[in-house]
Structure formats: C-alpha cells, structure tokens
Amino acid sequence: MTIGSNLAAQSSANDLTRTSAALTKSLAKLSSGSRIVNAYDDAGGLAISMRFDAKIERANAAKDNVSNAQSFTNTQDGYLKRVAKTLNRMSELVMLSLDGTKGDGDRILYNNEFTQLKSYITDLANKEFNSVSLFSASTVESVIDSEGTSFVMSGINLGATSTTYNAVTQSGSNISTTGAATTALSAVRTAITQLASDRANVGANQSRLNMASEYLAATIETFTAATSAIKDVDVATESTEFSRQNILNQSTTAMLAQANQLPQSVLRLLPN
C-alpha cells in the first residue's frame, strides 16, 4: 500500500467523472425532450432531422400561400355570383323593354335601372384583394408546395379591356329603344356565357388549391412524425437510464470517499 499514489481513489474519481457526464447528458435529454442534444449524439440523425425541419417550415409557408390563394379565388367567386345575378336582371329588363305594348317612356324607366346595373358591374371590375386586382387580364402566380412549384391562375377580366363585358357596360349600351334593346340582349347573353366560363375557371383553381392544401397538410404531418422519431427522446427509456446513472453517481461518490480514506490505514503500520 502506498501513500503517494492512491490508485483506488484515482480510479474512483475517473468513474465519477464518467457517471457525472452520463448523468448530465441524460438530464439534458429529459429537460429538452430531444434525443440529440449535441451533434456527436447522432450526427447522421441530426443531419436528416435538420433537412426534415427545413422541409416542414417550407411546407408551412407554402400552406400560408395556398390559404391566401384560396381566399383570393373565394373572393373572386363571391363577386362573380353578384355579377351573374346582375346580368340575369339586366336580361330580364331587356326582355321587358322589348315588349311591344310598352312605349319609349316605359323603356326609359327600364333603362334607368339598366344603367345603374352597368355601373355596378364596372365598379366590381375595379375590386382588389390586398392591392392585387381581382378582375384583370393579368395572371396571379403562387407557390403551392415545399419544393417551390408554382401555380398560375389565369386572369378574369371584367374591365374595359374585356370585349365581352365591355359590350354590356359601355356607355352606348342601353335599352331605351327596341333596336338598342335587341343589341343589348345579344351582348348580355354573350356576357352570361363568358361569365359561366370564368366561374368554371375559378372553380378549377379552387379545386387545385384545395388539393394542394390537403397535400401540404399530409406533408407536414408525415415529416413531423419522421423527425419526431429521430429527435424526440423516449422518456420512459431515458428516465430509466437517468435513474441508473444517478445511482451509479451516488455509489461512485461514496466509493471515492472510501478510497480517499485508505491511506489512513497505513498510519497504523507506523510506530507511535
């Protein structure tokens, strides 16, 4: 037995260092809820989870884009429903004006309402959604997935540059005479046909965006589950490991204290 080198104490101290480090690591995992606290815990898993996390964030951003695009198309369709109701009423007024039993004075009264409805359509043509025109010839593009895929919505043009709708809303359009009413009837019928096509296009856009939203929701769900399997700590298993390391730490501490007392027994060999 030697006094200068207490190998038992040194060995116990090394064991205590290891168990303390393991205890600290286990505690860090439990407190953070993550299995990978440091890169060296699982470098490969960390790299994969980082890519998954980035994909999830991109998918969340794309979902916001899709939601905004859905609101855009819903707003479009809401206004187009009112345009349809307006054109139906205008066609009704045209037919009333074409009644041979009515005089031009009656037709002027019908034309007053017809003129107001023209102004209503013109007003709707200038509506915007977050400073973006709802009804113009310009397309609207939105990114709808985490890989940057673009979806282009064709423009719905209600403005003055639309030949079909402009034939109805132009200043010369009126039903104050039977001749003018006949011309107006043709223009209104053509506009109704065009409106049906435009609403069908909006409906197709809505369907595509709904599918994109469902795809993004599934992407976020599946990749969240995948990254959770890689990163999240198994609390039951780690709690068991923590208890084991805690017991070892306490035991090693006690043994170190005993080892530090061993040189004292040498003193008994020395003469008084």
Assigned CATH superfamily of the largest domain: f41 fragment of flagellin, N-terminal domain
Q: Biggest sheet, in brief?
A: 2 strands, antiparallel
Percent of residues in beta strands: under 5%
What's the total number of strands? 4
How would you sum up this structure, described in words?
The chain is mainly alpha-helical and 272 residues long. Helices cover 71% and strands 4% of the residues. It contains seven helices and four strands. The longest helix has 55 residues.
Write the layout of secondary structure elements.
Elements (H helix, E strand, L loop, with lengths): L6 H26 L10 H55 L6 H21 L3 E2 L2 E2 L6 E4 L6 E4 L9 H7 L8 H54 L3 H27 L1 H4 L6
Helix pairs in contact: 1-6, 2-3, 2-5, 4-5
Question: Would you kindly provide a brief summary of this structure?
Answer:
The protein is mostly helical. The protein has helices at about 5-30, 45-95, 105-125, 165-170, 180-230, 235-260, 265; strands at about 130, 130-135, 140-145, 150-155. The strands form two sheets. A two-stranded antiparallel sheet has the order 1-2. A two-stranded antiparallel sheet has the order 3-4.
